């Protein structure tokens, strides 16, 4: 017998499709107020604001304003070209390029048909009326994560005109976190929709293949790509609707110290493959988002032109998450430079003399210093980013905790005490976010506890502890403080010598 269950019918789509469009003033899209005119662009002909990827978006009015104060080191023929390259690599230009690639892999011929559209290499797809057969999950005795055999031939499909050769030609990034080809290579056209589905999901559903959830750098790469994918799919004023489901393509229950971040994207608990164990499910609307390990993706291993900074995409992401998680800045009454020193409570890369360094900072009358351990043992993730968002200079050793830089204010400074020979990771992320980056320069003024011992790869700078020269440290912080004074209050300390 055919058992058809419909999970909750979405209300909001009906609202937004109604003939009378609400005006900006009466809309509560629960988004950062600065984003509102950009979101309404597609529906308000008089709005000049645009994100930057829309076909009729004027460069002057786009959301982003990346700058390239540094040299391009031979990457670009002119300043303007340099900015353009950065925009395409790490800003909404990346979204624009990806959107331009979207093409039908399975084309509807009737109004109620299915459809499947994807970019090159199947890095992003969206579909309507797609059947997914989860029968295989019944027979897996090992937990499913980063695997390519969740589906077999014919276990995903839709009722539409299928361009098989076109799709096959894009299955060349066949790797779990690089593309959707491990799943879509099995796509087939079907005769009936919903046909033999056990379940129909009416709310839009984002299926995510995620990176390591224990590591903030990697997991935020998932969140950034989720956000970018909402831009890819831009569905007008409900583009950031939280009435969407998230299905994580793993059989393990989702758990992460950063899980609160999902509250910015969905009102529902996240699903995993076990939610649909053994069932055939019809999704009326799916998005297969950009992935965390794409070749030339964001932001893991992204090639980024020298000299440029301030990606609007990263700023918008930061604002969006902070706004949705209800994180605010507290008024700073005493105008002191607020310094947060991230202390690691781990086996490697501890700062052996951190108490000495922190004491030295605390002696400066213009600094307000806080030492923090960002662990869910002591602080919820929201409490952590609240502290970060109220920081002017964020100091810490190389490590995933520095990903907090995404939530620093625009005028802030990231001081990566020492990059442990991994030069680009946080420097580039800081550039993308548009905060100033400082790191240790004089290798004669730091001490490694030993040569560093990777459990199986021998000596490596990441696997030991360090101590730093106090006065060199103070000088570098002072350099950061000057930047904050300048950016935040619009004056340089040369004319105000309280620093
Ligand atoms: C757009 O601008 C025109 C001319 O300024 C004005 O007549 C019209 O009412 C505006 N439309 C909206 C939707 O604001
Ligand atoms: C789902 O897959 C199983 C195993 O391949 C198959 O026996 C079953 O017929 C499929 N169901 C549908 C509705 O396609
Ligand atoms: C994607 O866009 C479609 C319309 O183009 C919309 O109906 C759907 O809700 C969007 N999906 C998500 C997950 O936002
Ligand atoms: C680094 O510091 C940690 C914490 O104090 C300690 O457990 C570890 O043994 C130290 N590592 C080295 C290489 O000395």
Automatic annotation (TrEMBL):
Stretches that traverse the bilayer: none
Catalytic reaction annotation: L-seryl-[protein] + UDP-N-acetyl-alpha-D-glucosamine = 3-O-(N-acetyl-beta-D-glucosaminyl)-L-seryl-[protein] + UDP + H(+); L-threonyl-[protein] + UDP-N-acetyl-alpha-D-glucosamine = 3-O-(N-acetyl-beta-D-glucosaminyl)-L-threonyl-[protein] + UDP + H(+)
Signal peptide range: 1-25
GO cellular component assignments: endoplasmic reticulum lumen
InterPro entries registered for this protein in UniProt: Glyco_transf_61_cat, Glycosyltransferase_61
Matching Pfam families: Glyco_transf_61
Keyword Membrane: no
Keywords attached to this entry: Endoplasmic reticulum, Glycoprotein, Glycosyltransferase, Signal, Transferase
Record carries keyword Cell cycle: no
Gene Ontology MF, one: protein O-acetylglucosaminyltransferase activity
E.C. numbers: 2.4.1.255
Enzyme superclass (EC): transferase
Domain Glycosyltransferase 61 catalytic: 321-413
PANTHER family the record matches: EGF DOMAIN-SPECIFIC O-LINKED N-ACETYLGLUCOSAMINE TRANSFERASE (PTHR20961:SF148), GLYCOSYLTRANSFERASE (PTHR20961)
UniProt protein name: EGF domain-specific O-linked N-acetylglucosamine transferase
């Amino acid at each position: 017998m055919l058992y058809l269950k419909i999970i909750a019918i979405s209300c909001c789509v009906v609202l937004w499709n109604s003939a009378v469009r609400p005006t900006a003033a009466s809309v509560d899209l629960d988004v950062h107020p600065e984003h509102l005119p950009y979101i309404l662009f597609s529906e308000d002909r008089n709005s000049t604001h645009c994100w930057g990827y829309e076909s009729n978006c004027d460069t002057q009015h786009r959301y982003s304003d990346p700058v390239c104060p540094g040299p391009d080191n031979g990457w670009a023929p002119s300043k303007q070209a340099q900015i353009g390259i950065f925009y395409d690599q790490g800003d909404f230009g990346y979204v624009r390029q990806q959107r331009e690639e979207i093409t039908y892999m399975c084309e509807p011929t009737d109004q109620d048909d299915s459809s499947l559209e994807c970019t090159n290499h199947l890095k992003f797809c969206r579909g309507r009326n797609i059947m997914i057969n989860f029968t295989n999950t019944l027979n897996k005795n090992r937990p499913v994560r980063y695997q390519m055999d969740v589906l077999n031939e014919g276990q995903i499909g839709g009722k539409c005109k299928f361009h098989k050769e076109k799709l096959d030609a894009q299955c060349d990034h066949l790797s779990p976190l690089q593309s959707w080809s491990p799943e879509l290579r099995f796509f087939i056209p079907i005769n009936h929709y919903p046909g033999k589905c056990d379940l129909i999901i009416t709310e839009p559903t984002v299926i995510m293949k995620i990176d390591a959830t224990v590591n903030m750098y990697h997991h935020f790469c998932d969140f950034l790509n989720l956000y970018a994918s909402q831009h890819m799919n831009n569905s007008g004023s409900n583009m950031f609707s939280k009435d969407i489901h998230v299905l994580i393509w793993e059989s393990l229950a989702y758990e992460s110290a950063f899980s609160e971040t999902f509250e910015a994207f969905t009102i529902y608990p996240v699903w995993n493959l076990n939610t649909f164990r053994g069932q055939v499910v019809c999704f009326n609307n799916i998005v297969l988002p950009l992935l965390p390990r794409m070749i030339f993706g964001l932001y893991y291993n992204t090639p980024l032109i020298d000299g440029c900074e301030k990606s609007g995409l990263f700023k918008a992401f930061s604002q969006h998450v902070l706004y949705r998680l209800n994180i605010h800045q507290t008024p700073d009454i005493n105008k002191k430079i607020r310094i947060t020193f991230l202390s690691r409570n781990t086996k490697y890369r501890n700062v052996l003399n951190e108490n000495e360094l922190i004491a030295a900072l605390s002696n400066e009358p213009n600094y307000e210093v806080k030492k923090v351990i960002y662990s869910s043992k002591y602080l919820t993730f929201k409490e952590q980013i609240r502290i970060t968002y109220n920081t002017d200079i964020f100091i810490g050793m190389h490590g995933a905790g520095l990903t907090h830089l995404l939530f620093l204010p625009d005028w802030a400074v990231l001081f990566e005490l020492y990059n442990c020979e991994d030069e680009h990771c946080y420097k580039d992320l800081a550039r993308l976010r548009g905060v100033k980056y400082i790191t240790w320069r004089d290798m004669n003024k730091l001490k490694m506890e030993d040569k560093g011992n990777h459990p199986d790869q021998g000596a490596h700078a990441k696997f030991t502890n360090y101590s730093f020269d106090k006065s060199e440290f103070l000088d570098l912080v002072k350099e950061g403080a000057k930047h904050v004074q300048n950016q935040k209050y619009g004056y340089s300390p040369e004319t105000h010598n309280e620093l």
